[in-house]
Automatic annotation (TrEMBL):
<feature type="transmembrane region" description="Helical">
    <location>
        <begin position="209"/>
        <end position="229"/>
    </location>
</feature>
<keyword id="KW-0812">Transmembrane</keyword>
<dbReference type="InterPro" id="IPR006119">
    <property type="entry name" value="Resolv_N"/>
</dbReference>
<dbReference type="Pfam" id="PF00239">
    <property type="entry name" value="Resolvase"/>
</dbReference>
<feature type="transmembrane region" description="Helical">
    <location>
        <begin position="185"/>
        <end position="203"/>
    </location>
</feature>
<dbReference type="GO" id="GO:0000150">
    <property type="term" value="F:DNA strand exchange activity"/>
</dbReference>
<dbReference type="InterPro" id="IPR036162">
    <property type="entry name" value="Resolvase-like_N_sf"/>
</dbReference>
<feature type="domain" description="Resolvase/invertase-type recombinase catalytic">
    <location>
        <begin position="2"/>
        <end position="103"/>
    </location>
</feature>
<dbReference type="GO" id="GO:0003677">
    <property type="term" value="F:DNA binding"/>
</dbReference>
<keyword id="KW-1133">Transmembrane helix</keyword>
<keyword id="KW-0472">Membrane</keyword>
<protein>
    <recommendedName>
        <fullName>Resolvase/invertase-type recombinase catalytic domain-containing protein</fullName>
    </recommendedName>
</protein>
Amino acid sequence: MNIGYARGNKLNQQFDFLENYEVEEIFSDKSQSYEVLQDPESDYQRLLDYTEPGDCVVIAFLEAISRDYQKLLEFFNELDELELDLIVLTSPDLTLAEWREVLLWINKNDRLLHPRLIKLKLKQEKNRNKESYSVFSRDSEAKQLYRDVLWQLIGKRKLREIAQQKSVPIETIYRIQQEFKRIKLAGILAICFFLAIATLKISENFSDNLWIQITVCIVATLAILYNVLADNEEL
């Protein structure tokens, strides 16, 4: 059984990741302190009580637990002792044992890596990833993949399924989803603007009272926004 967990200051983003993955339950803590994991009243402890050996804890990214390598290793050891597995949605193919090996290596070799070089590399990778999958990409295959992802998002497929099918990081699919939502919202607002003008013109034929015309216009616009945005939240 897959059990989701979210913590920190990006809960909404984490919830989006987890809800698009097959989890039975989602537990969350708002506190950004690592010590909350040891609090008997925390949702994390409730998660541990809820799970059984063989279950899998699913998190959106490692930062949901901690940015400290030692604390992450402690977290891994705790899951291992409870015979629980771990899935990190940013790298879902890695097992708990593999994550431990990665962090042990990083912890051992971290001082050999210059912080500025790490930051520059991450920035370059982020920019490359952003430019690779875009409707304005110069790469025809990347542009086609972007369109395919959009159509699948319109079809309301889960982010996890799209990422697996297209072999694209789930965070990239999430970014495309957010871009699509912004474009859709901009289109909705434009349509509402023109519909409001049309409603105002139509109301002129039934009443010369300006306040009645404005009221009809506002009510019609709010009704349109409510119905369309309610549907938009389902994406």
